[in-house]
Amino acid sequence: MPENDTWDYTLYIPNDLRAVSVCRRTLRLILTTHGLTGLVDTAELLAAELVSNAVRHTKGPAALRVRRSPGGLVWIGAWDTDPAPPPPPRAMDQTVDLEDGRGLGLMAACAQYWGWQPSARFGDRGKYVWCELVAA
Fold first, then answer.
1. What is the pLDDT of residue 93?
2. How many alpha carbons fall within 13 Å on the CB side of residue 60?
């Protein structure tokens, strides 16, 4: 497959914290297979944050989506069944001693862009929280 081809993967997961590990390993395999090993560590960290938030803070199923755009961006996102927007990210220096609450701060620090939008899957209302990384 040529380097600039687009692709799109979606992994549907149950509401189970063990799904975070499955998503991390799947993402690592996808990026490695497409020759994007330089993104693996950052992408895996961000995907784990997105998916763990989706599983911890909702009661329904979730999904991890990974795709590459024609412009060379890699988008990573998590869909969940809660339509409420995510809280604003905390600055990383405000979360040093906290057990949680760093996810969106990591997103803001490590991704070129991130955001969220209302979404619907499985007939349920929900949201899609995403980030983008430059693949070049």
1. 53
2. 16
Cross-strand bridge partners of residue 119: 126
Of residues 133, 129, 111, 131, the one with CA closest to residue 119? 129
Residues 36-58: pLDDT tens digits? Answer: 999 999 999 999 999 999 999 89
CA 46 to chain centre: 6
Tokens linked to 60: 């329904």
With 0-12 / 13-18 / 19 or more C-beta atoms within 10 angstroms meaning exposed / middle / buried, residue 53 is buried
Token pair in block for residue 75? 């988008």
Residue pair 133/66 in contact by the 8 Å Cβ criterion: no
DSSP 96: T
